Amino acid sequence: MKDLDVRGQACPLPVVAVKKALDEGGPLRVLLDDGAPRENVRRFAENRGFSVAEAPCEGGYAFTITGSAAAPAPTAPAPSGRGTVMLIGTDRLGDGPEELGRLLMKNFIMTLVETSQLPDRMYFVNTGVLLTAEGSEVIEALTALGNRGVEVASCGICLDFFQKKDKLAAGIVTNMLTIAESLVTAGSVVRI
C-alpha cells in the first residue's frame, strides 16, 4: 500500500495527487485535512468506483482507498467529449452598474429554465458561488434546472473563501480538477 500525505495542500492539489497515485495502481493511504480536501478526495475516489474507508488521525484524516477504477457514478459530472458546459464566474452579468448586473444575471438564470436547449453542466466559481447559496434570488431556478437534468456544481474552495459552504442551497460542491476536466472535454463552453 502506498502512502500519500497531502495535508496543508490547497485545492486542487490533493485531488490531483490522489488521481496520479491511483492511476499508478494499488491501494492507497492518504493523509489529508478536514473540509474541502476531505470532501473532494472522497467524492473523486467514489465517483471513479473506489472504496474509501476513513479514520481520524493527527492533523486531519486518513483515507484508505481500495478497489479499481470503474465508470463514474451516474451523478458524477462525467467528461463526455460533447455537451455544453456553462462556467459562471460572477454573480452579475455584464460590466455596467452592479445593481443592473445582478438583475441581469437573475433574469438570465430564470429565463434559462424556460429554454428548450439547456447546458449539461453549470459550474459556479469565484463570486458566482453566491448564486447557489442561501439568500440568492435564483435558488428556485437553479433547483428547477437541476430537476431538468442540468448538473449544478459550485467550487468548494470558492464556497470556503466566502464562508458559504454550509449555506449551499442549490447543486453540489465540486473541485477544480472536475471543472478543468469537464471544460477541456466539452463540446462547447459558455463563459458568463
From TrEMBL:
SUPFAM superfamilies on file: DsrEFH-like, SirA-like
Return the Pfam families for the record: TusA
Give start and end of each UPF0033 domain: 3-66
Q: Which InterPro entries match?
A: DsrEFH-like (IPR027396), Se_metab_YedF (IPR019870), TusA-like (IPR001455), TusA-like_sf (IPR036868)
List each coiled-coil range: none
This chain belongs to which protein, by name? Sulfurtransferase-like selenium metabolism protein YedF
Which species expresses this protein natively? Answer: Geomesophilobacter sediminis
